[in-house]
């Protein structure tokens, strides 16, 4: 069903950076050290995978077994799933949630039949959730039943250390919460890895879906220094949030939440009924001083919706896609509207125009007395004729990609869901919201809408849970956590540098002021494609 053939190699997927100081790796470290000592005179290796079956640690007793593992991609950062590697002790133990031994011919892929493998799941004693998988592998000639009990003892030792670590982290978080929980003037929420604490004021104010936004804020906390910000809760209430990390709590944070302001009113729907999620907070007034406005952003960020809203309900819209096949006729229609119409003109996707058409359009836009709204890809991605056209706009708004504000995703998802099912009571469960917040969203709001439309199909009430989401979302675990704002900014800067250098990594590294080795590591961490398409070489008429 996954398209694997026994004669295939392990199917390559993205190899991402790993979190070396996670709760699992900290708990497993001493146990793995002891296992290495006990296996020192053997040809066995040790692999540790996290709760998504991504390898986070590897210990080898010889260079020979290390090279053998490299050939089958058993390396840190690789997600060892049955969909890419078939039956084996790591992926199958992850799938079945129980210990398993797979030796020689029992492997599905011939490339793995030189190994004897023993795998066991690691279950958290408190939450009873799968935390990871530990695996011992070696040459098939060295297969022995003695490794089963040896591996199970190691798994139990790691689980015991997870329990001890959870108790200590929970004690730290509980102590911090108790020091502030008696406050009646504001809500207090403490969020740990597997723990949520709230005072009575927070019970009425903060819903489960708000925890996703709070955890996104916690991911950006700089050490123990407090951070203050504003937030719109799922209920629509505007609140002020004071957040700070709790030392020794494994990423736990304490939030003091105070009501302030009034609930935001929902923005009017644009053509097709889509909520204007990507629109600027302060929509400009089309006057003589701002007659031409430019809306830029990645595909799916709401450029068209924002432009139509700014242009008004009576605006005339021209899409660059309609110019395909008859550029001259399209140009004449646009020029006529620019010179004669008395209403607003929206010219959508100017980056899709041919260079000739972009150059021809600059003159009529410049002399038009009508309000004009242009939309395009980010200005750095434009060719010279398109940049010249975009430069006519004295007012510009750049719509940020969805991945840059995970703390607002819950509010956006609720708005989209309300538009899709206006008469229903369907809601998103916190687990589903958390999974949505970890996605990279290359298609931005457009992709979010498609995902929610799939998840809500045929529903009139109830909760959308994780299993209702499409497989492309549930199986996309390339990032163990959502990127912080700083990481998102770094990723976008790398992509921009690669585009500017036409994919030349050496030139991009020089522009960014980093070494090529550092650049390669960042490419793996952020899952940036091997090649970034040159913005100037695409065929604008196809």
Radius of gyration: 27 Å
Which topology of the largest domain does CATH recognise?
Answer: Beta-Lactamase
Outline:
globular
Strand order of the largest sheet: 2-1-5-4-3
CATH class of the largest domain: Alpha Beta
Quickly give the structural class.
Answer: alpha/beta
Helix fraction by DSSP (H/I, runs of at least 4): 25-40%
CATH superfamily of the largest domain: GAF domain
* Contiguous runs where pLDDT drops below 50 for at least 5 residues: 261-289, 530-542
How many strands, what sense, and barrel or not for the largest sheet?
5 strands, antiparallel
Q: What is the CATH architecture assignment of the largest domain?
A: 2-Layer Sandwich
Number of domains: 5
Helix count, DSSP H or I runs of 4 or more residues = 18
Q: Alpha-carbon distance between the termini?
A: 35 Å
Can you give the mean pLDDT? 81
Q: Per DSSP, what share of the residues sits in E-state strands of 2 or more residues?
A: 15-25%
| Number of separate strands | 17
Task: Provide an overview of this structure.
- The chain is of the alpha/beta class and 542 residues long.
- It has 5 domains: 142 residues, Beta-Lactamase (2-Layer Sandwich), CATH 3.30.450.40; 77 residues, no CATH class; 108 residues, P-loop containing nucleotide triphosphate hydrolases (Rossmann fold), CATH 3.40.50; 74 residues, Helicase, Ruva Protein, domain 3 (Orthogonal Bundle); 42 residues, Orthogonal Bundle (Arc Repressor Mutant, subunit A).
- It has 18 helices and 17 strands.
- The strands form 4 sheets. Strands 2-1-5-4-3 form a 5-stranded antiparallel β-sheet, sandwiched between helices. Strands 7-6-10-9-8 form a 5-stranded antiparallel β-sheet, with helices on both faces. The chain has a 5-stranded parallel β-sheet with strand order 12-13-14-11-15, with helices on both faces.
- Helix 9 runs parallel beside helix 10 and helix 12 packs across helix 14.
- The chain starts with 22 loop residues before the first helix and ends in a 17-residue tail after the last helix.
């Amino acid at each position: 069903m996954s398209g694997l053939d026994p004669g295939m190699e392990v199917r390559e997927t993205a190899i991402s950076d790993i979190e070396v100081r996670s709760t699992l790796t900290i708990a497993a470290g001493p146990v793995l050290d002891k296992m290495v000592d006990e296996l020192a005179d053997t040809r066995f290796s040790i692999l540790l995978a996290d709760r998504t079956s991504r390898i986070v640690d590897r210990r080898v007793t010889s260079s020979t077994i290390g090279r053998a593992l490299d050939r089958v991609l058993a390396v840190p950062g690789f997600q060892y799933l049955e969909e890419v590697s078939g039956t084996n002790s790591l992926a199958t133990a992850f799938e079945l949630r129980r210990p398993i031994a797979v030796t020689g011919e029992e492997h599905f892929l011939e490339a793995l039949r030189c190994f004897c493998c023993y795998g066991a799941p690691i279950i958290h004693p408190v939450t009873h959730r799968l935390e990871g998988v530990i695996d011992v592998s070696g040459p098939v000639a060295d297969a022995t039943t003695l490794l089963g009990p040896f591996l199970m003892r190691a798994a139990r030792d790691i689980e015991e250390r997870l329990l001890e670590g959870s108790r200590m982290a929970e004690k730290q978080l509980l102590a911090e919460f108790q020091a502030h929980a008696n406050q009646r003037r504001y809500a207090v929420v403490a969020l740990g890895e597997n723990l949520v604490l709230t005072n009575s004021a927070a019970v009425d104010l903060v819903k489960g879906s708000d925890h996703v936004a709070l955890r996104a804020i916690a991911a950006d906390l700089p050490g123990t220094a407090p951070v203050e910000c504003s937030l719109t809760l799922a209920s629509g209430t505007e609140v002020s949030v004071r957040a700070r990390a709790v030392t020794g709590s494994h990423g736990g944070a304490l939030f003091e939440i105070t009501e302030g302001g009034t609930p935001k009113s929902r923005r009017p729907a644009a053509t097709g009924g889509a909520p204007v999620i990507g629109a600027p907070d302060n929509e400009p007034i089309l006057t003589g001083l701002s007659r031409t406005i430019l809306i830029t952003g990645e595909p799916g960020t709401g450029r068209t919706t924002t432009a139509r809203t700014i242009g008004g309900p009576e605006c005339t819209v021209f899409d660059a896609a309609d110019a395909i096949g008859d550029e001259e006729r399209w140009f004449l229609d646009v020029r006529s509207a620019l010179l004669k119409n008395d209403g607003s003109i929206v010219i959508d996707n100017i980056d899709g125009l041919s260079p000739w058409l972009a150059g021809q359009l600059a003159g009529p836009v410049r002399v038009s007395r009508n309000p004009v709204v242009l939309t395009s890809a980010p200005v750095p991605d434009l060719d010279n004729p398109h940049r010249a056209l975009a430069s006519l706009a004295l007012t510009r708004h750049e719509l940020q990609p969805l991945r840059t504000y995970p703390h607002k995703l819950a509010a956006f998802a609720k708005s989209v869901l309300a538009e899709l099912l206006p008469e229903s009571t369907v809601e998103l469960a916190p687990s589903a919201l958390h999974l949505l917040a970890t996605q990279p969203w290359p298609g931005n709001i457009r992709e979010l809408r498609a995902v929610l439309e799939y998840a809500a199909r045929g529903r009139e009430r109830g909760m959308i849970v994780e299993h209702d989401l499409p497989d492309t979302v549930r199986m996309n675990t390339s990032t163990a956590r959502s990127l912080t704002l700083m990481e998102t900014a770094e990723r976008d800067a790398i992509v921009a540098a690669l585009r500017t250098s036409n994919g030349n990594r050496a030139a991009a590294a020089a522009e960014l002021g980093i070494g090529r080795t550092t650049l390669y590591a960042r490419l793996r961490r952020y899952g940036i494609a091997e090649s970034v398409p040159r913005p100037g070489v695409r065929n604008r008429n196809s």
